[in-house]
Structures are given as C-alpha cells and as structure tokens.
Write a structure and sequence with these properties.
rod-shaped, about 0% strand, about 130 residues, mainly alpha
Length: about 130
C-alpha cells in the first residue's frame, strides 16, 4: 500500500505536471492569440493589396486609353503637318514658276527693246552717213 510519503510525492508530481500543463496552455493561448492577430493582419493587408491592385489596373487602363488617344492625336497632327508641308511646297513651286515666267518675259522684252534700240540706232547712223 502507498504510504503518506508516496501520496505526497504523487501529489507534488501531479501539482508540478498541472503547473507545467497550465504554463503550456497559457503559452499555447498566447501563440493562438498572436497567430489570430497575424492572420487578421494578413487578411487586412491582402484586402488592401487587392484594392491597390484594382486601382492600379484602373490607372493602367486609363493610361493605355490616354496613350492611344495621344497616338491618334499625334497621327492627326503629322497628317496635318504633311498636308501643310505639301501645300507650302506647291505654293513655293507656283511662286518659282511665276518668277521664272516673269524673268523670261523680262528677258524677252529686254531683247526686243535692245533689238529695237539697236535697229533704231543703226538706221540713225545710216541716215547720218548719207
């Protein structure tokens, strides 16, 4: 049979085990609480990341639309510039042609005037010689 000492030792062992179990249980509760907070924080951050991603995707789509609109605008401006450049070149060509024709006409009139002047001068010389 168990003696009082054996029962006291058994009681001490049981109390020691109970103390260790209580300590372990307390630590386990603390770990569970920390994990619960961590999971909650992670869920919150995941929600924020999803929100940020959604905003970023919207901004990217808007930037793409803006980029496409700018490309169309630049294309239109290039087209207008090319048209203006072509018109300017055509006007310049017409001006050059006009100036060339004018120069030819002046040359023609000068030749006729010089020819007429020389003819008159020669006739005058002939008349004086007679």
């Amino acid at each position: 049979m168990a003696t009082k000492e054996d029962v006291a030792d058994l009681k001490n062992i049981m109390l020691s085990i109970d103390s260790k179990v209580t300590n372990f249980s307390s630590r386990l509760d603390s770990v569970e609480k920390n994990l619960t907070e961590l999971i909650s924080d992670v869920k919150s951050e995941v929600g924020q990341v999803k929100s940020d991603l959604s905003i970023t995707n919207t901004e990217v789509q808007q930037l793409r639309q803006d980029h496409n609109e700018l490309e169309r605008g630049v294309g239109h401006l290039e087209s207008q510039f090319n048209c203006l450049e072509t018109e300017k070149l055509e006007l310049l060509k017409l001006d050059i042609d006009k100036n060339l024709l004018h120069s030819k006409n002046v040359k023609y009139y000068l030749r006729n005037m010089i020819g007429n002047t020389m003819s008159s001068s020669m006739e005058s010389n002939k008349n004086q010689m007679r």
